[in-house]
Amino acid sequence: MTLLHAVPNLDWHFFSAVPPPKSTSIPDRDAVLAAAETAVRSTHPDLTIRRAVFKGAIATALTDASQSARLVVVGTGAADHGVLGGHAVRIVNRTHCPVVVWRQPVAKRTGKPLPVVVGVDESKDSTRALAEAFDVAAALHDR
Question: Model pTM greater than 0.85?
Answer without folding.
Answer: no
